[in-house]
TrEMBL record:
Belongs to the sodium:neurotransmitter symporter (SNF) (TC 2.A.22) family. It comes from Cirrhinus molitorella (mud carp). This is Transporter. Signal peptide: none annotated. It comes from the Eukaryota.
Length: 591
């Protein structure tokens, strides 16, 4: 239903402030009344759960615990918290405020901020597509495990299956079992040989044919995604009440069960034991910055899209603090869920925890944890709820990522798509499904790794760096602060302004430079990615980022006037009234 409301859709259209404070407009007054038919969240909790569901994903469960123990255990929390406070949370707050104020998606928002940077919006949508090509395949793996869990004896418990090899070694419940470098657990062989079948692939040069079991799982995942998104936030806002809350129930159950296992304390000590000397290593701070950035997820267009459906006066500041805290605490608690089980496995193998905790990434969730679950009392129950948790964690993030594309494109082409959302979402889901087919092959795990590393990686960090720079230095920190004041009734404090202008961009530049100076070799399952695949990876990364300079050139060429006039037009936000701000870079304190 169309509804009327007061909005400031074209920037901060305010009455001029006092003449003795030209750099800061202290009394913004709305001057435009617009009639909009834009959807709104039915309830405030629909929005909060959607944001939490997007930010809290599989990476919170598999990446944070590994990064934490690798980089000094409890000592890692110091750089992690500092990077969150000065880098991650300010960027998170900025995106929520931008989306709520301008009430539009990642593409069309730039005509209200700085038109020449509109290519950022197109780049974000392309990256979101790349993510959908591989991320949903990981959820499909979890669905395969979920189906396989409905048996009295879990199939990754023994070495008596068709897919097992002579290296399969089952050490649970047995004495005097020798574990060598060639030994493979039943869970590892189930994952690599039965689910992925990577042993039948020669690598990226010979990925083999599509596995129909995984294609069916992926089809079911995308069917759920379509019917959750096709009607907009009215439907997705209801679905997240299940998908965003259920993981916390499961995490609590698994944490309690893990704490009762023999040897659990070894894992907790290993997880949190502080190694203070690690703080002197630059790599620890880089990992902390990258972890908080990818955990909170600014730059993917999701926060812009989700907050654009808020009411104009919603307290986005409080939302940013609450959801950031929930995200970081979830990562921390997930470490206990994982490491109590790793301690238990070390006890059973009679080895050190560090020898068990070598798996990282998806392997931690698809090999290590299922292996431990298989040898618990009530293993079927715990396996079922664990993979339900993984599926729901993944679906939430998929909802957010695709909604970012949907909102951005529909807001950019409203005349064509405004009444065809169901068809557009269907077309998008079909494109994502077709784009994922290469990840369903027998060498699909290598494609997933390549897309994960290069499809997102440095490209998204560079895009957020440009976004933060464009908002703070071109749109103007005072103008942005006034926008927030018109929504909340007060301006952000000096801390937030300094973070937006200097600290957060420096935080992003630090990650970019460090990753470029210290590239890591790309390997998976003892397979080293060939040089040609790395070249392909760089092309994939460039294919999204290149639209930023391309659009800049296009905008300058097609704008009439001299070069100076063109630059003035391309850098100036589109407005319905003359721009009344003066000092766009002043850091005037709140009066």
């Amino acid at each position: 239903m169309p509804h009327q409301e007061q909005v400031l859709a074209h920037g901060n259209l305010c009455a001029p402030g006092p003449p003795n404070n030209a750099g800061y407009n202290s009394n913004p007054v709305p001057v435009i009344i617009q009639t909009e038919s834009r959807d709104k969240w039915s309830k405030k909790m629909d929005f909060l759960l959607s944001v939490i569901g997007f930010a809290v994903d599989l990476g919170n469960v598999w990446r944070f615990p590994y990064i934490c123990y690798q980089n000094g255990g409890g000592a890692f929390l110091i750089p992690y918290v500092l990077m969150a406070v000065f880098g991650g949370v300010p960027l998170f707050y900025m995106e929520l405020a931008l989306g709520q104020f301008h009430r539009t998606g990642a593409i069309s928002i730039w005509k209200h901020i700085c038109p020449i940077f509109k290519g950022i919006g197109f780049a974000i949508c392309i990256i979101a597509l790349y993510v959908s090509f591989y991320y949903n395949t990981i959820i499909a793996w979890a669905l395969f495990y979920f189906y396989s869990s409905f048996s009295s004896t879990l199939p990754w418990t023994s070495c008596d299956n068709d897919w097992n090899t002579e290296n399969c070694t089952n050490y649970f419940g047995k004495d005097n079992v020798t574990w060598t470098n060639y030994s493979r657990s039943p869970a590892e062989e189930f994952y690599t040989r039965n689910v992925l079948a990577v042993h039948e692939s020669s690598g990226l040069g010979g990925v083999g044919y599509i596995r129909w079991q995984l294609m069916l799982c992926l089809f079911l995942i995308f069917t759920i995604v379509y019917f959750s998104l096709w009607k907009g936030v009215k439907t997705s806002g209801k679905v997240v009440w299940v998908t965003a809350t259920l993981p916390y129930v499961v995490l609590l159950i698994l944490m309690i069960r893990g704490a009762t296992l023999p040897g659990a304390w070894k894992g907790v000590v290993f997880y949190l034991n502080p190694k203070w000397e690690k703080l002197q290593e630059t790599s620890v701070w880089v990992d902390a910055a990258a972890q908080i950035f990818f955990s909170l997820g600014p730059g993917f267009g999701v926060l812009l899209a989700l907050s654009s459906y808020n009411s104009f006066n919603n307290n986005c500041y409080r939302d940013a603090i609450v959801t950031s805290l929930v995200n970081c605490l979830t990562s921390f608690v997930s470490g206990f869920v994982i490491f109590t089980v790793l301690g238990y496995m070390a006890e059973q193998r009679n080895v050190n925890v560090e020898d068990v905790a070598r798996d990282k990434g998806p392997s931690l969730l698809f090999i290590t944890y299922p292996e431990a679950i298989a040898n618990m009392v009530g293993s079927t129950f715990f396996a079922i709820i664990f993979f339900v948790m993984m599926i729901t964690l993944g679906l939430d993030s998929t909802f957010g990522g695709l909604e970012a594309i949907i909102t951005a494109v529909m807001d950019e082409y409203p005349d064509t798509l405004s009444h065809r959302r169901e068809l557009f979402v269907l077309g998008l889901v079909v494109v994502c499904f077709l784009g994922s087919l290469s990840t369903l092959t027998k060498g699909g795990a290598y494609v997933v790794k390549l897309l994960e590393e290069f499809g997102v990686g440095s490209s998204i960090i560079a895009i957020v760096f440009l976004e933060a720079t464009a908002v703070s230095w071109f749109y103007g920190i005072n103008r942005f602060s006034n926008d927030i004041k018109s929504m909340l009734g007060y301006t952000p404090g000096l801390f937030w302004k300094v973070c937006w202008v200097a600290i957060s961009p420096a935080f992003l530049a630090y990650i970019i430079i460090s990753s470029l100076l210290n590239p890591q070799p790309l390997t998976l399952f003892d397979y080293e990615f060939p040089d040609w695949s790395i070249t392909v990876g760089y092309i994939i990364g460039a294919s999204s980022f290149m639209w930023i300079p391309i659009y800049m050139v296009y905008k300058l060429v097609w704008t009439p006037g001299s070069l100076k006039q063109r630059l003035a037009v391309c850098l100036r936000p589109e407005r319905t009234l003359p721009d009344i701000h003066t000092d766009s870079m002043g850091l005037s304190p709140v009066p």
